[in-house]
Amino acid sequence: MSQEPVPESLPEHRAPRPRPPGGPPPPPDTPYSPGGVGSHGPDPSADDTRTDTDTHTVTKTETDTGAGAPGGRHGNAAVRTRPGPRSKRAMQGAGRRRRARLARLDLKVSPYAYVAPFFILFAIFGLYPFLYTIWISLTNESPINPETDFVGVDNYTRLFGDDRFWAAVVNTFGMFVLATVPQLLMALVLASWLNRRLRGLTFFRMSIAMPIVTSTAVVALVFGMFFARDYGLINGILGNFGVDPINWRASQWTSWLAISAMVDWRWTGYNALIYLAAMQAIPRDIYEAAEIDGASRVRQFWRITIPLLTPTIIFTVIISTIGGLQLFTEPLMFTSGSGALSGGTTGQYQTITMYLVQTMRTFNQWGYAGAISLVLFLMIVLVSAINFLLVRRLGSDR
Amino acid sequence: MTVTMSTRPSQTSRRRRPKGGHEAGATVRRASPLTIGGLIIAAALSIAPLYWMLVVASRTSNSAYQWPPALLPGGNLGENIQRVLDNPDAAIFRGIVNSFIVSGTITVSTVFFGALAGFAFAKLRFRGKNALLLAVLVTMMVPIQLSIVPLYQMMGEFGWLNDIRAVIAPFLISGFGIFLMRQYSIQAIPDELIEAARIDGCSVWGTFRHVAVPALRPAAGVLGLLTFMQQWNEFFWPFIVLADPGNPTVQISLRTLNSAYHQDLSQIFAGMVIATVPLLLIFVFFFRQIISGIMEGATKG
Predict the structure, then answer these.
(1) Would an 8 Å CB–CB cutoff place B205 in contact with chain A?
(2) CA distance linking residue B55 with residue A37, whole number of Å
(3) Rounded CA gap, B269 and A228, in Å?
(4) B152 in contact with A at a CB cutoff of 8 Å?
(5) In the listed set A88, A105, A122, which residue is the last one of a domain according to the structure?
(6) How much is the pLDDT for A97?
């Protein structure tokens, strides 16, 4: 959005018309900058002449505080508020012009300087590695390979026939669904509970938010102990009901369940708070109107709360998708000891990211790892998009 | 990305609510006993694993293997912490120092550059602003997993492998930080103040320094807290570049403890207490800011 220079500012500078004190304020909703006219104004030479005329006019129109012409007259403004002896001012003419030019440069360059650090850093640690990943995925680069050859799409064709990769995909999606669906449903329920009038609200909020400060490594270790085969808390409780000890790490389903429990514990409260924020933003009178119309509370929840929450639900689903498809720490820490990257004896809980790291660090196949990471990225984008459409559909159906 | 401060009005009503009794604020439904029961269960489930961590960390290793399990903390916490600090493999003291350096540096940098760029995006006018802002938002979607291979190579070339600089550098500025500060700048910095500063002869930097910085302080605090927490808990990237266990972050120390051949549970759990306590303290002291940061960050997204 390039701002047009304000057309009437130029004549105004040349021949300032008398204006009532406290003239029309600038439109409040258009954020103008200190850059204002200066950064997009006419060419500098025109500005210079204006500076000269202004020094004369300013003294005449003391009431004109520049409210009508936001921006642009930086140097003059400074002079106006610090009126010195007139002779001194004349002597300072040249310096003032230089200052004015510097001020305009300041206005023009500063915004770019302020946003530049981000883009420089991103270019180094984001964009360049991304582009290089595309290149590397077309080679057989390896730290133990003295020379690197271009291999075309070989890595990708290999990937599509790689059973271990697809097993990791199944594991990742399995745990993602197992973790995300109950988590978001529980979060919705929790949020609607927290959105009531009750004693100890702060306590409840605080305790439900507490898992957020716990690191995934800690979560994984504590839950790893809960789900231990011998002396584990879960097996102990189940044992009271006559269930034989389960070796949670041994099979696919049980390990998925255990790992999903870790994810759920850590993130349910976070999502509940987000839903709560959105629920509190819904105007109360909508519910009052529904109540008058005789809608039950369940009906109100499905017909009012859920549709109005749809953007927020989309947000949480996408955040969960991005996080869930990159699941790494929990399954890694579920195995103690070395070889944890394999995700269990037969890879029953190895995720895509674990396989990626294993390919890179253990197998030293950097080119192939590049291909894996790009496919993972595409999957994240694709699944996020599908979920977005899905949730929007659900929201509008009601 | 529709951006509103939609949570504002509701916050006032929320503040009124817990006082209870007054029918004026009674549009919000009172919680039924069933709801309260559910909330108590949820709260208990949320706290239980952390409490359990404390219990195991404060007892002898053997007591972790008894049934029924011990439910009260024992008296060995100090001793267990001493043992884990003395454990040469885990280097947990080094890990804590490193984690403080890493999280602290990234927090300061994220807040400073976030405020600077957020202010520019919200209040300054420059060509290509919207396109650049969009670019910032798009970069938020790019996970680090995507490019670990080149990043790892790059850190190798910089000579930063097993060096905490490798953990700091890629995270110094976040798109999320810029976006959060931009949203806050829009409503917290009145244009009149910027204009007044300019009339007083302030440079753009001076305007930022004297007008924006004081106004942005609350948001900077929230962003700082969230960033510190996130970086303190970061696992994936340190795991990749700090492979040598001698120079870990605290999370990597925990991983080393856990992968030892002989597992000493009370020692591991004492290490976890050490790793969690700084954040728990921050959480208890700044609970309100953290919660509002999470809640507002989401509704603005």
Answers:
(1) yes
(2) 65
(3) 15
(4) yes
(5) A105
(6) 82
Residues of chain B with C-beta less than 8 angstroms from the C-beta of A381: 141
Scanning every residue of chain B, which has its alpha carbon at the shortest distance from the alpha carbon of A221?
B258
Residue B10 pLDDT: 40
A83 found inside a domain: yes
- Domain membership flag for residue A93: yes
- Contact call for residues A278 and A309 (beta carbons, < 8 A): yes
Give the residues of chain A that fall short of pLDDT 50.
1-84, 398
Q: Give the separation between CA B254 and CA B233, rounded to whole angstroms.
A: 11
- For residue A167, being part of any structural domain is answered with yes
CATH number at residue B289: 1.10.3720.10
**Cβ-based neighbours of B280, under 8 Å, separated by 6 or more:** A210, A213, B50
In chain A, residues with a C-beta closer than 8 Å to the C-beta of B135 are: 119
Among partner residues B67, B146, B254, which is closest to A218 by beta-carbon distance? B254
- Chain A, 132 to 161: residues with Cβ < 8 Å from chain B are 132-133, 136
Read off the pTM: 0.79
What was the ipTM of the complex prediction? 0.85
Looking at the fold, whether A87 and A205 belong to one and the same domain comes out as no
Alpha helices in A231-283 (DSSP H): 233-240, 252-280
d(CA A118, CA A139): 30
**Domain membership of residue A68 as a residue range:** 9-21+29-105
Is B291 in CB contact (< 8 Å) with chain A? yes
Query: Is B294 within 8 Å of chain A by CB?
Result: yes
Residue B198 lies in a domain: yes
The total domain count for chain B is 1
Q: Nearest CA of chain A to the CA of B15: how many Å?
A: 11
Q: Is there a domain that residue A115 lies in?
A: no
Q: Are A241 and A345 in a shared domain?
A: yes
Q: Chain A within 8 Å of B150 (Cβ-Cβ)?
A: yes
Chain A nearest C-alpha distance from B94 (Å): 18
Q: How many residues does chain B have?
A: 301
Distance of CA B164 to the CA centre of its chain: 18
For helices A306-324 and B287-300, angle between their N-to-C axes, nearest 10 degrees: 100
Report yes or no: B46 at the A interface, CB cutoff 8 Å: yes
- Same-domain check for residues A246 and A363: yes
